[in-house]
Design goal:
Blueprint: H1 4-17, E1 23-28, H2 39-46, E2 51-57, E3 60-65, E4 70-74, E5 80-84, E6 94-100, E7 105-109, E8 116-120, H3 122-128, H4 130-133, H5 146-154, H6 160-165, H7 175-185, H8 198-217, E9 261-265, E10 268-272
Antiparallel strand pairs: 1-6, 2-3, 3-4, 4-8, 5-7, 6-7, 9-10
Helix pairs in contact: 1-8, 5-8, 7-8
The chain binds a DNA duplex through helix 7.
Length: about 280
DNA sequence: CGATCTACCTGATGGC
DNA sequence: TGCCATCAGGTAGATC
């Protein structure tokens, strides 16, 4: 479900809603949500702690605690974080509930159960947990120049879409935003990184920054299945700004004369305009 | 090293 | 109406 813009939207809400709150109790009911450690250990390291910060690295959310520990959350395909009060009916697939001493709850809901939560020390995050320590640059958190971006690109030899979605190079871009970025830049998904001209590199990077920030501005994308919602259950609005994603056979919004094509790349759908992207 | 495929799950959708 | 195949925002791991 969520890519950088959706996770960033949630992070900003967490900053307002849970930072400063103290954890009274934690209930783990899902069998798979806490799988790197015993739920008991996670609960023990959470209860009684105050949340002091809400950070994001790529698609990972990090809730920093006053104990020094960090609660790491990855939503994967269908995970949601929802604000609630104890009397709210429990939605199906609610796997973990954090209750605050100030009242109110943070609930983790995840139908497909790919999402996970674990608690780690900052040291473990920077050096021991490969997915996190090997994470590439977060283009929103740590802006770079297009020249730096070009250096990253020149170091690799792969298909452009694979490059953009490789979390160990650039963190946060997934299937939707890769397609939107490539359309905006006018470059095909299957171009080899070593064939891009300097101008194309500059265009791809400018599009990358613009699309991600624009998507954050609109609160991310919610597709027809309505899976992505924010802390308050509100869907995003960026889907109506999509130029290609999920627009197969609909006219290209740039050239207006050709239909968006859906192709398979790396076993997933890729949407593009055969005329506007070269 | 990169490309490709599978697995992990539930639920929605569309064809027959 | 029901049954079955296919697909979905992500990622890790196996294999070539």
């Amino acid at each position: 479900m969520p890519e950088l813009p959706e996770v960033e939207t949630i992070r900003r809400e967490l900053e307002r809603e849970v930072v400063g709150k103290k954890i009274k109790s934690v209930e783990v009911t899902g069998a798979r949500t806490v799988r790197r450690q015993k739920p008991k250990e996670l609960i023990a390291r959470l209860e009684g702690m105050k949340i002091t910060g809400a950070q994001r690295k790529g698609k990972y959310l990090l809730l920093v605690l006053d104990s020094g520990d960090v609660l790491v959350i990855h939503l994967r395909m269908s995970g949601q974080l929802r604000r609630a009060v104890p009397k709210d009916p429990k939605e199906p697939h609610t796997h973990l509930v954090i209750s605050f001493t100030q009242g109110g709850q943070l609930r983790f809901v995840d139908p497909r159960t790919f999402g996970e939560m674990f608690i780690a020390t900052p040291d473990e995050i920077t050096s021991d947990i490969p997915e996190l320590s090997d994470l590439g640059v977060d283009p929103v958190e740590t802006p770079m120049s297009w020249v730096d971006f070009g250096r990253l690109l020149r170091r690799k030899r792969m298909k452009l879409k694979a490059f953009l979605t490789d979390q160990s190079i650039i963190a946060g871009i997934g299937n939707i935003y890769a397609d939107e970025i490539l359309f905006d830049a006018g470059v095909r998904y299957d171009r080899d990184t070593d064939t891009l001209t300097t101008q194309e590199i500059r265009r791809v990077y400018r599009s990358l920054v613009e699309i991600l920030h624009d998507a954050i501005k609109y609160g991310g994308s919610t597709l027809s299945d309505g899976q992505y919602v924010d802390l308050n259950g509100k869907p995003g609005e960026y889907q109506s700004h999509h130029q290609v994603y999920d627009r197969e056979k609909q006219p290209c919004r740039r050239c207006r004369r050709h239909d968006i094509v859906k192709a398979k790349f790396a076993n997933r759908s890729t949407y593009f305009c055969q005329v506007c992207q070269v």
